[in-house]
Automatic annotation (TrEMBL):
Pfam families to which the protein is assigned, alphabetical: ABC_tran
Gene3D superfamilies: P-loop containing nucleotide triphosphate hydrolases (3.40.50.300)
GO molecular function: ATP binding; ATP hydrolysis activity
InterPro entries assigned to the protein according to its UniProt record, in alphabetical order: AAA+_ATPase, ABC_transporter-like_ATP-bd, ABC_transporter_ATP-binding, P-loop_NTPase
Domain of life: Bacteria
Family listed: Belongs to the ABC transporter superfamily.
Protein name according to UniProt: ABC transporter domain-containing protein
Signal sequence bounds: none
Domain ABC transporter: 3-228
PROSITE patterns reported for this sequence: ABC_TRANSPORTER_2
Keywords of the record: ATP-binding, Nucleotide-binding, Transport
Length: 290
């Protein structure tokens, strides 16, 4: 069971937004979908949810082409920031529609989440402040026991307390009903511990599709005098370099046999956000020292 995307491209307004994407999202796995602004993350999710159509290629959910089997979309829920509700829809009506469309929508869970965030079912969605709109959307998403949950910047506009609460709700929903979650965000630090795999898009193409642990375990910075660093870097995979106060800090991918270094050098592991910055930094041709 999986979402499979094969040879998919999307052109909009003469712009190639997604370019020949081949990607599989495995069952019961939490993914981070990362990329710089305009890299194509939202477009990819809209295509999976069948709100947009590919120019080329196809998408299968559980081996069924979504173009021909719209029924499989009852098993895919996309939490979007698009304004999709009628102007005068009250929260309780939206909750009711969710229950009618999605067979595994959990009304009781949704009610308790609405209560937790002090959301009044009689309010109009369009009149809610931004923060409450975001919270309401996440109440719907985390009550919906679909096999594929797509979240586009789910914590947008929330303070740190509520962002943390939202991630907690996401994990609770996963534990109650394990599912594939595709979580797109720029707050990489906040989700590193939550996700198992990471997909990074760059200019509409897949740059990375890997396990977070495998990726991060190979990523380091090495700092020291130019001569020592340059010597160490020979035959290594260099991601980037920065010059600061007469020293060089280089970002590298190392395997276990490459860790030995001279005592004047400082080796530090990178976290996912630091690695992301290095992996995507050459978009504007700013990679230094090469
Ligand atoms: N319907 C469309 N018409 C024209 N351009 C589009 C359309 N849809 C997307 N684009 C363009 O495609 C690019 C990718 O957009 P998308 O929203 O998918 O990126 P993103 O990675 O989600 O960005 P962000 O992180 O800023 O939200 C952008 O340059 C956007 O302007």
């Amino acid at each position: 069971m999986a979402i499979e995307i094969r040879g998919m491209s999307k052109t909009a307004d003469n712009l190639l937004v997604l370019n020949d994407i081949d990607l599989a999202f495995k069952e019961k796995t939490i993914y981070g979908l990362l990329g710089q602004n305009d890299s194509g993350k939202t477009t990819l999710m809209r295509l999976i949810a069948h709100l947009r159509f590919p120019t080329e290629g196809y998408i299968e959910v559980d081996e069924l082409d979504i173009e021909e089997h719209s029924d499989v979309l009852k098993n895919v829920y996309f939490q979007t920031h698009d304004n999709i509700y009628p102007k005068r829809a009250k929260l309780k009506q939206i909750v009711k529609w969710m229950g009618l469309f999605y067979p595994n929508f959990q009304m009781d869970i949704c009610s308790s989440l609405l209560e937790k965030y002090h959301l009044n079912e009689n309010e109009f969605f369009n009149k809610l402040p931004l923060k409450k709109k975001t919270l309401f959307r996440s109440c719907l998403a985390f009550s919906n026991d679909v096999d594929y949950l797509l979240l586009d910047e789910p914590a947008f506009s929330l303070d740190a307390y509520h962002r943390n609460a939202l991630y907690h709700d996401m994990l609770a929903s996963y534990e109650r009903y394990p599912k594939t979650i595709i979580l797109s965000t720029h707050a990489i630090d906040e989700i590193e511990e939550l996700i198992e795999r990471v997909v990074i898009l760059e200019d509409g193409q897949v740059l990375i599709d890997d396990e977070v642990e495998a990726l991060v375990n190979r990523a380091y910075s090495v700092k020291g005098d130019e001569r020592d660093v340059r010597e160490f870097l020979q035959q290594k995979t260099i991601l980037g370099q920065e010059y600061r106060k007469g020293k060089i800090k280089a970002y590298v991918q190392l395997d276990e046999t490459e860790m030995e270094l001279n005592e004047n050098l400082e080796l530090k592991p990178l976290n996912l956000q630091e690695l992301f910055i290095q992996l995507t930094r050459d978009v504007y041709g700013e990679r230094e020292g090469e």
